Amino acid sequence: MSVNSSVNEFILLGLTQDPRKQKAIFGVFLMFYLATLLGNFLIVVTIKRSRTLGSPMYFFLFYLSFADACFSTTTAPRLIVDAISQQKTISYNECMTQVFASHFFGCMGIFVLILMAFDRYVAICKPLRYTTIMNRHVCSVLVILGWVGSCIHSSAQIVLALRLPFCGPNMIDHYFCDLQPLLKLACMDTYVINLLVVTNSGAICMVSFIILLISYIIILYSLRNHSAEGRRKALSTCTSHFIVVVLCFVPCIFIYTRPATTFPVDKVVAVFYTIGTPLLNPLIYTLRNAEVKIAMKKLWCSKV
What we know:
Blueprint: E1 9-12, H1 19-49, H2 56-84, E2 89-91, H3 92-125, H4 130-133, H5 136-162, E3 171-172, H6 179-185, H7 191-222, H8 228-256, H9 266-287, H10 290-303
Parallel strand pairs: 1-3
Antiparallel strand pairs: 1-2
Helix pairs in contact: 1-2, 1-9, 1-10, 2-3, 2-9, 3-5, 3-7, 3-8, 5-7, 7-8, 8-9
InterPro entries: GPCR_Rhodpsn, GPCR_Rhodpsn_7TM, Olfact_rcpt, Olfactory_Receptors
GO molecular function: G protein-coupled receptor activity; olfactory receptor activity
Pfam families: 7tm_4 (PF13853)
């Protein structure tokens, strides 16, 4: 518990206060969460066990699916349980842990998306040097740097959260603990801390999105020199990646790149990147990727 705080627990108001809607939320989001775990688990196991999915793209997809499953687990179970629970309290320590974990795995997902875009850039723009540049050692180092960067980002978030004093209201108008709703409850001037949140989370979202946009523009421009079949395959892969990027970054930019104001729609927008994106990623990468579908059929049909 923070030395500046007299509050030792918070009450999460969730997505709605309506009992009938809460039952619907329980059923719908339980199915979403189980589907998220199943989809990402299938991708992780398929890539780990399949000999045909050994390229860097699938190496990074393995970590994206792992990060997505963990990221969803930081928020979805609490939302599901609170929908049917009378006691919607979360302790101060649990709240801080949730802030750290959600930012850690969320940031890792963002860094992996950047690595996947870099991999596609090298594969399409520098095909002759691809195997030299994107060897397994380089890929492993890039993933380790992603984990380190995520740890630095989430550590900065938790340091800011621990500096907030809470001495009165403890009702969080959200379904999980995050800095924006916590800033509303703090009994201090939060202008500087909010500026640091925007500089940290907002900058990561905005800069990463711009980097990804530029990389895909360069990739699309370079495709003009490829054959029709090469263009079709590259466009199919890049389209999948770009859909994921838009679904992930647009809600994040909306939440984290503005002053310390919260809107009722924030909770709905947060659903998109905390629950929607981890659920849709496995569908997008399997339904639009013939290699993954074939590998899954071979692996799981042989098991059955």
